[in-house]
Fold this sequence. Notes:
Blueprint: H1 16-27, E1 31-32, H2 33-36, H3 42-47, E2 52-55, E3 59-60, E4 70-71, H4 81-92, E5 96-101, H5 112-125, E6 130-134, H6 142-151, E7 155-157, H7 164-170, H8 176-189, E8 193-200, H9 206-218, E9 223-228, H10 245-258, E10 262-265
Parallel strand pairs: 2-5, 3-4, 5-6, 6-7, 7-8, 8-9, 9-10
Antiparallel strand pairs: 1-2
Amino acid sequence: MQRLPEYLKRPIIDTDKTRTVRKILKNMCLNTVCENARCPNKNECYTKNTATFLIMGNNCTRNCRYCNIICSKPQPLDKDEPLHVAKAVKDLGLKYAVITSVTRDDLPDGGAEHFANCIYEIRKISDDIKIEILTPDFKGDKNSLDTIIKACPDVFNHNIETVRDMFKTARPQGNYDLSLEVLKYVKDNGNITTKSGLMIGLGETFEQIKETLADLKSVGCDIVTIGQYIQPSKEHLEVSKYYTLEEYEYIKQLAQKTGIKHYQIGPLVRSSYKASELV
């Protein structure tokens, strides 16, 4: 296993602010992707009084080989969760809320209505709060996507996650072209900013990164995030390469040449990292 470069290491931060965020989340019985996916930016975000909500439980119906979230039988939906998310948004004083979920292939709509209910409950607090949702592919079901579009999130995010040639290795239950179709459908049928992201370090080439950026541009994707894959455990896919800071600058140039105007590209960039700054 390759040694983790120094620029990927983050200090442990424990302050009154981080403890307050944890307390609010615990009181509302809410999960965060920050905790469940072992995000390296967790403490930085907590110090800024923000977190990315993980709805519909913490057990996923898919077994992506890079993800730290458990693949297991999901829990029943908590019908009160949208209200709890909204209350947490209020208590944290968020002006920009990010909501993601595990994949729920066991639900007829993949959980689209649950996402929509979270948006509706937050809107009851204030129309000024911006809402970004990071969703699974809903198996491409247009009724599910229409439910999302009707709820009018400010940003619709669906991650492509990796290049086409690595897709089946990393996401055996997903489909590269389907993910592109999901982004295109939302862009074509809703006046919604679309966003996607990928992790690098799985064995892809610069040319494949460029092709993926071109594919995202072709479906009207407005915002792209790219960051370094970090192996959560020995059971997950190994890191093939740690990109240098100079190589990240080169990837930024690729994004610019592809016509992507809004992007966040760097070693520790994750889907929702500094999300409000890109909108």
